[in-house]
Batch of 2 targets.
Target 1
Amino acid sequence: MQQFGVIGLSVMGKNLALNVRNHGFSVSGFSIDKPEVDAFAKYEDDKLKPCYTWEEFVNSLEKPRKILIQIMAGNPVDQTLQKLLPLLDKGDILIDGGNSNFHDTTRRFEEMEKHGIHFIGMGVSGGEEGALNGPALMPGGDEEAYNGVAPILEAIAAKTPEGRPCVSYIGPSSSGHYVKMVHNGIEYAIMQEFSEVYDILRKIAGKSNDEMSDIFAKWNNGRVHAYLTEITTNVLKQKDDLTPDHIIDHIMNIASYKGTGNWMLEDGVALGAPISVVAEAVIARFMSKATTREGKSVVWNGDVPEDLIDNLEKSLQLTQAVAYAQGFQQLTMAAKAYDWKLRYPSIAQNWEAGCIIRSSMLKDIEKAYADDKELDVLFQDPYFKELMENNIHALREVVSLAVKAGIPTPTLSASLNYLESIFNPSLPANLIQGQRDYFGAHTYLRNDREGTFHTEWYEEK
Ligand code: 6PG
């Protein structure tokens, strides 16, 4: 009997199955797409079994069965559950490893619970390479079911530089997929920050692709040690197959998306989470399609400040911290609203290796939340407070230079505005409250006494 099963054998499912096998567990693989099973069958050995029917697959697994569903999110997951249900036994464990919407996962978790089936919604990050050699895993559901699959998940997950696995129980119900959604919102935010810095480097500092690649490589060994820095270096230096140019200069500047970052924004709005940088990153992708492209590209004829490159590095480091801070802020608010006990240090640890947003800063975030410390805002932590104090001047310089040049910096500006606001005791919302009370008697709170107040406003004749 096989110890683990995988449904869906396209590149992610196949690589995860191989990863399980490579760690000494026996695994069965099944797909409704026969050519996928045929391709999988090439790896067949005493620990890896290709299956061609639902029955053959389910019956090949030891009980309680542990099945990873690695298929396209949405209806296919519901169809798979319907197919599986009559074949399963109480106590079996299903893991949905796709990028499912957390609302769907809540519903599926409850439905499966009624049938005595454990359902784990698990975020998987790291792409094809991660799936094979060590992804970051974010499993949510009931803890007992997690414990049943923990040995396999811990074996296949990426490891932090200290050798700790990038997987741990996230929390109940759909919290695993929620955390993956937040991961993706942060991913959108940091990617947009990189592209704005790239825009300033090429248009104001006048750097070539190779020069920019070298700058990012230096930052990767400096203040912004991160997977996204590493791949930016590689993307910028890659030559084109079809022309003598760099490929980056021939990639159409329209950003696509499958929408998981957008979902974070949707729920952020529902919760009232101030995730402005994620919002700007989502909208920047919309704008990349919506712009009419009728204008002229910026040509900067002004001075290039001597400290520009240094300021850009400091800005990227600080705005990356803001992206994480907004992610953790939404998680904190979601945990309260949905009554989840989330373990923030474990979430940071899960992201320290394997995933797209991995960076050495996550270790500092893990420390900031250590011992279950409650932080409303990451920048309350002394390390991040100091980072803000040290780098905010650089960010102000960068944003004001971009404003002068006419270069849009939606996420760099939003990061700056977040930092200018987050500890600010005198934001001007008192005027909004006065206006609301004026036109609609919506009432307001006072800063000098308890209670709710309404004013009879004098109309200026
Ligand atoms: C990951 C990624 C991945 C996601 C891609 C593309 O963690 O491995 O988040 O799950 O699908 O990044 O996302 P978009 O198509 O929305 O950019």
Target 2
Amino acid sequence: MLEATNEVYRALRQRFRGDLLRPIDPQYEPARVIWNGMVARRPGLIARCADVADVQAAVRAAAAAQVLTAIRCGGHSLAGFGTCDDGMVIDLSSMRQVAVDRNSRSCRFAGGCLLGTVDAATQKEGFAFPAGVVSHTGASGLVLGGGFGWLTRLHGLSSDNVEGCTLVTANGSVIRANAKENDDLFWALRGGGGNFGVVTEFEVRLHPVTSVLVGEAMCTGDDIPALVRHWRDFMQESPDNLRWSLSLRLAPDAEHVPVELRRRPAVTQAAVWVGDIKKGGDCLDHILSLCNPVGVTRKNMSFLALQTMADEEFPHGRRYYTKSGYCKTLDDHTIDLMVQSLASIPSPLTQIELAYLGGAATRVGAAETAFGDRSSPFVINLLGNWSKLSEDVSNVSWVRSLFQSLKPSMTPGVYINFMSGDEEDRVPEAYRERWARLVSVKSHYDPSNFFRLNQNIPPQEMAEKRSIPR
Ligand code: FAD
């Protein structure tokens, strides 16, 4: 262990209530690992905090010793920001309390919660928090970056449903941020990522959702571009109750896929309807009949089942690399480029994920929160997903090259939670007209850029060296 990390360890060990894990400790190895197998780093110390006082002590000790510090909730940062080499990780995984208030339809959850932790507690009371689609994702990272999933079109981004945060700032103080207290910080926390402090508790609005209608289907061959075009046109007029997402990929080696189609280019579809069952049934019947689909299913599903439906598709430890962007419209040429790219896709696990936002997320004003672009509804996420280290180069190159060819069709901007670790230059682009205000809030709450393992918004002096792309 480096001397600086050792100093932090010595400063903390007397009063720390959680676990302090060093490379010599047996619990260190499993605690070190994060979701993305591409990011294998070895921090000098993992401070697994038991409570807010532990977080304060850890921040103060690391700041005093000037130790590089990563904050980890679920460890799902695609870029790997939940860990570092040699420095310290503040691990919040022991802080997973959730308190639901039925009367106010709200809940408070601690900064280490996974989405599944929040869902389990809120569903017991008949409510849902709009968040992401994989239950082992950390709630903090997702919410601080924005957060979208099955309920977004109806109830907004996760961050749009945040009413307040409690956080430990860079000097170790505990403060609250909401519409009345530290409102500039509250603005920045809704989309600005982990730049401003360690959020130890979120207070969020809930919505009465316990079951949904879910349909799935797959199209292949010439039906792929035709289906994507139908989807593009349909979503622009569709009710907010519908979230219909597509994945361009190779057909999976799964039981429900006819043998002759497996590993052939395909578009898989998942459609979720929240609300009136009759209207939803008619809508799903229509969209799931387009372009000669195979493997069509349609069923009622509990919200908890929906939220865990994709869990196994994205397991911990595989190798992942992503590039993402927004489009205002999706022209035929862009669709053709994506479809053609399937011919050279190096991994049967890789997907080009297509989502359409719109709905409630676009009814929040662009300046109301720090979240990036709300005006370009099409989200393209190239998610490289493979198993072997020896295949890194081919998979990363494929994602990069497809991204370069799609870039001219994209609007400037990117969803920060879908960025990879080599895209620091895109952070100003992600925030554009919100950048200057974010830099000002950062300068006030974290002038030394202590919280820098993130999609970093540097304080003023450092920011002047970066530029906002036009
Ligand atoms: P971590 O790696 O723990 O942290 C990520 C970042 O957040 C770091 O910069 C960290 O410093 C900061 N951070 C974490 N906790 C705190 C805290 N308490 N206080 C301050 N800063 C903190 N996104 C969506 O919007 N919708 C989806 O449906 C979706 N699905 C996903 C599925 C998978 C399998 C994966 C891997 C990611 C998905 N994402 C989705 C992206 C996801 O939002 C980001 O990866 C997010 O960063 C994950 O949060 P985390 O807490 O697990 O990450």
